[in-house]
Amino acid sequence: MKKFCESKVSNEIGDCNSFANWIIYVSFKEVYRFGLRIEKEKRNDSFSQTLAVRQLTGSLTSAEGLRFAIVVARFNEIITKPLLEGALDTFKKYSVKEEDVDVVWVPGCFEIGLVAERLGKSRKYQAILCIGAVIRGDTSHYDAVANSAASGVLSAGLNSG
Ligand SMILES: Nc1c(NC[C@H](O)[C@H](O)[C@H](O)CO)[nH]c(=O)[nH]c1=O
Ligand SMILES: CC(=O)[C@@H](O)COP(=O)(O)O
């Protein structure tokens, strides 16, 4: 499994104007399903001596017939639920059938890696997507939870191939 995307975004919830960090993790066994497009770009600036810049862009046309799992944390559900809905919507857009997606709720980010690893080892899924949200407060609690979640997801990938 490979780490596909990790993003940090700022987020406001109620009184708490804080930083939320959520992790989205996808792995694809069959990378060849992503068509690789090579585009050449001509630049009209001081770098124009570089005639062409090669850009590699992945494009997924259809994931029909593939099975996916989503592990989603209930903690900070106000954030994770819309992320889950977005993920389900995106799967639909790529022709993944509803019955080919299993959603597993876990209490919080701490549990994501554990469950993702089990699901990965089941060999039932093409990819496992993990969704969690950790909000920075006044203490170092944020770092503990976010770091554990990130390393749990990394271990899940490494241990389930
Ligand atoms: N503080 C956050 C948590 N904490 C809960 C833990 O993840 C865990 O579920 C609990 O300690 C039981 O083992 N979880 C988040 O997802 N986000 C947080 O900000
Ligand atoms: C990681 C958290 O749950 C976070 O909101 C805790 O906030 P605080 O550090 O103020 O206790």
UniProtKB/TrEMBL annotation:
<dbReference type="InterPro" id="IPR036467">
    <property type="entry name" value="LS/RS_sf"/>
</dbReference>
<comment type="function">
    <text>Catalyzes the formation of 6,7-dimethyl-8-ribityllumazine by condensation of 5-amino-6-(D-ribitylamino)uracil with 3,4-dihydroxy-2-butanone 4-phosphate. This is the penultimate step in the biosynthesis of riboflavin.</text>
</comment>
<dbReference type="InterPro" id="IPR034964">
    <property type="entry name" value="LS"/>
</dbReference>
<keyword id="KW-0686">Riboflavin biosynthesis</keyword>
<comment type="similarity">
    <text>Belongs to the DMRL synthase family.</text>
</comment>
<comment type="pathway">
    <text>Cofactor biosynthesis; riboflavin biosynthesis; riboflavin from 2-hydroxy-3-oxobutyl phosphate and 5-amino-6-(D-ribitylamino)uracil: step 1/2.</text>
</comment>
<keyword id="KW-0808">Transferase</keyword>
<protein>
    <recommendedName>
        <fullName>6,7-dimethyl-8-ribityllumazine synthase</fullName>
        <ecNumber>2.5.1.78</ecNumber>
    </recommendedName>
</protein>
<dbReference type="Pfam" id="PF00885">
    <property type="entry name" value="DMRL_synthase"/>
</dbReference>
<dbReference type="InterPro" id="IPR002180">
    <property type="entry name" value="LS/RS"/>
</dbReference>
